[in-house]
Design a protein that fits this description.
Layout lengths: L32 E4 L1 H7 L7 H14 L3 E5 L5 H12 L8 E7 L2 H11 L4 E9 L2 H7 L4 H20 L5 E9 L6 H15 L7 E7 L6 H14 L6 E7 L6 H10 L4 E4 L13 H10 L11 H12 L20 H16 L33 H12 L5 H18 L5 H13 L5 E9 L7 E9 L2 E9 L2 H11 L5 E10 L6 E10 L2 E9 L2 H19 L13
Helix pairs in contact: 2-11, 4-6, 6-7, 8-9, 12-13, 13-14, 16-17
The structure holds 3-methyl-2-oxobutanoic acid and zinc ion.
The site of zinc ion (ZN) has 6 residues, from loops.
């Protein structure tokens, strides 16, 4: 049960004292060194840890995406990890420009086992950690501060020695004061400096110090303050590559990574889509794409994001959320009518200025840049409006509804959406459109027509065969054009209609191209739309008029007395 007074159980985070902090006014202008910990931290958090096949597939994917540092496992803690690391090295699976990283606890026999796992690697980072925060020192390990430092120094000395025994490998050393963000800052500095001395870190042979937010416990500005404080106070900053390793317990792992980069970090450890212990490690895809939207190339390639997501889902056996930034199945989709309308206008503006800076409403990024298509951007349900419906008809069926018709037709679709309560696919929209306008052949249908004209006359004569409930009649008329002649012919047969508005365009291409005509007519004082399609534009317009008459008649009961109307 939630407490009335949570302060009785939880204490607020105590911020580091840094009144002259510089990071808030900085910008991230270049990508950090990216290190994937999918195969270690990510794997440790899975219900079913990856087998060799899944590990290899994920490793290959990480290489393809462009990671140059990949933590491949915790070989002293797991035989599967040990075997995997060995198989990467023995089967020469690591590209020359990729450095593998392995994690070990700060214990001699585990360090030795780790070195067995990476023997023969061309380039490797050995990453050792021990917990430095006061609660862990007291509750978990029962060690004093000097004892805690000694553990780290002994491990570093051992690693240094093992490295010198294998000069064929290009070594890098990494130390993590685990739980850095809940460690006293002066103690974090003290233990890191002791490790630096034990390793002999210099500007020429720097070591990586990884400052993890093992559990995210405060707003991300606090982590940034701690990183800036550390970078400004630690001895010999140039001998360090400062790395951050945010977890996401408060849901602000991405913000924390960004702010710590502003605060001076050089490197970020994280996972694809944020898999990892509890609420996850920081999500490198989001971080990278955030940079990209600021005009900074992240140096990782997510141009075909969907197959990457599917592969990671397979390897982790965990789904990526449909609303995951930049990636989820629904993130480039608008259901709301006002959003659809704005996106539609933005896309039209974009088509007119394809090389301009991206400025499309509601879309922070061009879906094409990550291999997604525009077709899926707009989807229709009961929350949608005419914008989305006409967009789908236009994009997927080549039907460009005039504005008033689009308003009218949206009510037809809304009725289907309200009735079903489900998403309306573009096929369903097309079917509703065809039933409502194109399928209107009762009681009247146009069977055929013939046009003729005298050489010097502007007039056109038309003879048409129409079917009325299966019975054929011939009607005749004359006018300034085929449609006017047809209207005259209909008037002669007692069907007086006035054309209010008319639009036409062709639909499809090549041999499959056809004309589509949208006709708005007034019958008996009432405005009605009709739509016709045909290979010939004249027939399409005549069918459009027939569709309007039939729709008018079916809306009347009893049958109407069609009155005279003026013809243009
Ligand atoms: O979250 C963490 O602190 C870790 C360390 C091992 C770096 O994963
Ligand atoms: Zn971690």
């Amino acid at each position: 049960m939630m407490l009335d007074n949570p302060a009785a159980k939880y204490r607020p985070f105590v911020a580091v004292d840094l009144p002259d902090r510089q990071w808030p006014s900085r910008r991230i202008e270049q990508p950090p060194i990216w290190t994937s910990v999918d195969l270690r931290d990510g794997n440790q958090s899975l219900i079913d840890p990856m087998d060799q096949e899944r590990k290899q597939r994920l490793f290959d994917l990480l290489v393809k995406v462009g990671f140059k540092e990949i933590e491949v496992g915790f070989p002293s803690a797991s035989q599967t990890d040990f075997d995997f690391v060995r198989s990467l090295i023995d089967n020469d699976k690591i590209p020359d420009d990729v450095t593998i990283q392995v994690l070990t606890q700060a214990r001699e026999h585990l360090i030795d086992r780790t070195f067995e796992a990476i023997k023969g690697a061309k380039s490797a980072i050995v990453h050792v950690y021990n917990a430095t925060d006061p609660m862990f020192r007291r509750v978990v390990f029962n060690v004093s501060k000097p004892e805690c430092i000694q553990i780290a120094v002994d491990a570093t000395t051992r690693i240094r020695q093992r490295m010198s025994e294998a000069p064929e490998t290009n070594w890098t050393f990494q130390y993590s004061p685990e739980l850095f963000t809940t460690t006293e800052m002066d103690f974090a500095k003290e233990i890191v400096e002791a490790v630096m001395v034990a390793y002999g870190a210099t500007a020429e042979t720097p070591m990586i110090v990884n400052l993890p937010a093992t559990v995210e416990v405060a707003t991300p500005n606090n982590y940034a303050d701690q990183v800036e404080w550390f970078c400004r106070h630690v001895n010999d900053r140039e001998a360090l590559i400062v790395s951050v390793h945010p977890h996401n317990d408060r849901g602000t792992g991405v913000a924390a990574a960004e702010m710590t980069l502003m605060a001076g970090a050089d490197r970020v450890e994280g996972t694809l889509f944020g898999n990892g212990e509890r609420t996850g490690n920081v999500d490198i895809v989001t971080l990278a794409m955030n940079l990209y939207t600021q005009g900074v190339h992240p140096g990782l390639d997510f141009s075909n994001i969907t197959p990457i997501m599917r592969e990671v889902e397979y390897c982790n056996q965990l789904p990526v959320h449909p609303r995951h930034p930049y990636v989820g199945d629904l993130v480039f989709t608008a259901f709301s009518g006002s959003h659809q309308d704005a996106i539609k206008k933005g896309m039209a503006d974009r088509r007119a200025n394809p090389d301009a800076i991206w400025d499309v409403p509601y879309l922070p990024i061009d879906p094409l840049d990550v291999g997604r298509s525009y077709e899926a951007v707009i989807r229709v349900n009961s929350q949608s409006g005419k914008g989305g419906i006409s967009y789908l008809l236009e994009q997927e069926h080549g039907i460009e509804l005039p504005r008033r018709l689009s308003i009218e037709f949206s009510q037809v679709v809304q009725e289907v959406a309200d009735r079903t309560g489900k998403e309306i696919t573009s096929q369903m929209i097309y079917q509703a459109f065809a039933d409502e306008y194109l399928g209107q052949t009762m009681p009247y249908a146009l069977v055929s027509h013939r046009l003729s004209s005298e050489p010097d006359s502007p007039k056109v004569s038309l003879e048409a065969t129409i079917e009325e409930r299966g019975e054929r009649h011939t009607i005749q008329g004359e006018g300034n054009g085929p449609l006017a002649a047809y209207i005259k012919a209909l008037a002669g047969a007692g069907h007086d209609v006035e054309i209010i508005d008319y639009h036409e365009h062709s639909r499809g291409q090549g041999a499959d191209a056809e004309a589509i005509a949208y006709v708005e007519v007034r019958i008996d004082g009432k405005a009605v739309f009709g739509v016709g399609t045909d290979e010939s534009i004249t027939s399409a317009s005549m069918k459009g008029v027939m569709s309007a008459i039939n729709r008018y008649l079916s809306s009347q009961a009893p049958a109407p007395n069609v009155t005279a109307a003026s013809l243009a």
